[in-house]
Amino acid sequence: MSVRREERPDILSGTQISVNFRGLKALQGVDIQVPEGAIVGLVGPNGAGKSTLLGVLSGDVRAQQGVVRLGGKDVSGLAPEARVRRGLARTFQLPQLFDELTVREHLTLPRRLAQVPSRAWSDPLTGRFLHRDVPEEQEVDALLASLGLEQVADTPAGALPLGLTRLVEIARAVATHPTVILLDEPFSGLNPAESRLLSRTLASLNQAEDIALVLVEHDVEVVFDLSERVFVLDFGELIAAGTPAERPAVRAGGQQRHLGSQRAVREVRGRHGPARGLLRGPAAVRDRAAWS
């Protein structure tokens, strides 16, 4: 589905990232590069360090070693909210929504705070939020339409099925006007029809808005279909990286749920080391009606 574009500068990168949790080496000298407007996949078994790496990139996890750059600038010491203001957004394995807020409100608030952070405290004092903001409404309506959320715009998030809550979380991230979004297992728990729709939505979002996406997912076929570059983690180490269309060893390894041999790793990464059950079966899916 993805089309390889000309070489572009990295919008986000991590260099020699290492994280230890009480002696456990969660990440060991990991490098990752995300070009502007690219979709990059991150795969590996449970416990490989995928979510930890996303946490380091977003600022939710502090690395003991390594450098994170966003837009070419070192943001290693910045808090998550500071990185958001610089153009980074993320979603989580379990959707983090407010049950009582409507879908429209979930998009309006982050859009508002991303543009004018001081409104978080000034609006309750001045009552500005009580007055219509036509440009804001138009932008939110356009975002709802682009992601097919118009029909549930005024529905509380707590009343939505899982597939729609994942879409709302992605829409909320887009509302902050990011240059890159980190997606932590967005397909988890979706049935095949929901997965196909979400896959098309992410591809369309990437093309239309030129937003880079970092996709962590157990369903490697989805990752290979969407991504132009894939990074493979195992036991906290980066053991392979390549472009699925150009590196048959990456695609073959993903389809078999493992890389198969040291030779396959060398073909992709130019690096020696055992492949220990790299890619396992897709995440379990629940039987839910597809949203439309």
Q: Summarize the main sheet.
A: 6 strands, mixed
The helix tally amounts to 10
What does the overall shape look like?
globular
What is the C-level CATH assignment of the largest domain? Alpha Beta
Order of helices and strands: EEEHEEHEHHHHEHEHEEHH
Round the Cα radius of gyration to an integer and report it.
19 Å
In words, what does this structure look like?
By secondary structure, the protein is an alpha/beta fold. It folds into two domains: 1-87 and 178-292, Rossmann fold (3-Layer(aba) Sandwich), CATH 3.40.50.300; 99-174, no CATH class. It contains ten helices and ten strands. Strands 6-7-8-3-9-10 form a six-stranded mixed beta sheet, with helices on both faces. Strands 2-1-4-5 form a four-stranded antiparallel beta sheet, with helices on one face. β4 and β5 form a beta hairpin. α9 (248-255) packs across α10 (262-269). It is globular and about 50 Å long. The two termini are 21 Å apart.
Topology (SSEs and partners):
Elements: E1 10-21, E2 24-35, E3 39-43, H1 50-58, E4 65-70, E5 73-74, H2 80-85, E6 88-90, H3 103-115, H4 119-126, H5 134-146, H6 162-174, E7 180-184, H7 192-209, E8 212-216, H8 220-226, E9 229-234, E10 237-242, H9 248-255, H10 262-269
Parallel strand pairs: 3-8, 3-9, 6-7, 7-8
Antiparallel strand pairs: 1-2, 1-4, 4-5, 9-10
Helix pairs in contact: 3-5, 3-6, 9-10
Summarize the structure.
The protein has 292 residues and is of the alpha/beta class. Helices cover 35% and strands 21% of the residues.
Q: Which features does this protein show?
A:
globular, 10 helices, disordered C terminus, 4-stranded antiparallel β-sheet, 21% strand, 292 residues, single chain, Rossmann fold, alpha/beta, 2 domains, 6-stranded mixed β-sheet
